[in-house]
Fold this protein.
Amino acid sequence: MSSSSTPDLSTTATTENGSASHTTPGFGTRAVHAGQQPDPSTGAIMPPVYFTSTYVQDAPGDHKGYEYARVSNPTRTALEANLAALEGAEHCIAFSSGMASIDALLKTFTPGDHIVSTNDLYGGTFRLMTQVFEPFGLRFTFADLADVDAVAEAITPNTRLLWIETPTNPLLKVFDIAALSELAHRTNITAGVDNTFASPYLQQPLALGADLVMHSTTKYLGGHSDVVGGAIMTNSDAWNEKLRFLIKSAGAAPGPMDCFLQLRGIKTLHLRMERHCENAAAVARFLRPHPKVADVRWPGFEDHPAHDLAKRQMRDFGGMVSFVLKDDAPETAYRVMAATKVFALAESLGGVESLISHPASMTHASIPAEKRRASGLSDSLIRLSVGIEDEADLIADLEQALEAA
Ligand SMILES: *Cc1c(COP(=O)(O)O)cnc(C)c1O
């Protein structure tokens, strides 16, 4: 394949859920190719990893589009074009972590600005908002985003951002991105979605009306538990400029090797997501009737409060499953987690390996206990990031571990 015949896959894809049309390549084709052409000097099919901090100029200001690597790097440019194509976005700004991307977004606001978000928010985002940005004068309200009227009530004349996370972590609530974006736009508020749990393969918030979509690429996009990264995608030129100004000014830039690892991981995103979803469905259905299990959270159950919405808004139900034990003591959850052999006890999610974690003492420990319990996060709640191993091995592992409950 010569570079001249390489289809230009870095252009915006507009079809909902990435299905192929004759003008837009399908999701899998974009995942493999978008943003990447064979290297013109060698034919290398993978983008080179440009380990460089600066770029030689022919005369002051006369350069090839790159001046200094905090601002841009060609390996990062390839990743940004790829991620933009996956979310159907004009622009993508890649950051050194998911938190760095939310940090940059919050720095665009000024003291007194108000942000509405979910009361079942990723713990790290909650900590960043309340412990870093509240002291700088930003104001936050954490509401039940399932109740659109309650969200409307939380909005004040100073509200600038509605920050949506769906499905949520770890309770797997599902919120209506289209309805919430519409509500935000009625009052000139930016709607942003943390799309980490779904991945762009399962859910495309910009097509549903959101202004910004954010990923911790550490999770499903990277997919192999070997890299930390973040990104924000948007169709807004103004947001692109603001966020690019911030990465240049504040410097939360991803390194070229990190960008390469993400590009490599993304090539199998669609295949991995299908297996994550199949395995999670099998695990959720195994756990639900188990005598030691009180409750299983998975949006694929028909009686999940937002099952129909999830079916409409997502391609499939995702790879995350949470469950509560009949014996709600945290020690009982600890015993089960200590007994698994395939599921590894670890924070994080979205990698090929199955992980088991205890949000109350791990990812959500920074949320005060009363607040945690009030939002429905019980002490025995166990979160599974279901990997791509064999279904029978995952179920056998949980079966033997639950004997410890
Ligand atoms: C992990 C995660 C983040 C933070 O991303 P990092 O890459 O760890 O900084 C934000 N939101 C969600 C939903 C996450 O799971």
User: Anything to note?
Assistant: Residues 167 and 182 are 19 Å apart (CA to CA). The pocket of pyridoxal-5'-phosphate is lined by residues 97-99, 122, 124-125, 165, 169, 194, 196-197, 216, 218-219, 228, 230 (CB under 6 Å). The chain has 14 helices and twelve strands. The two ends are 57 Å apart (CA to CA).
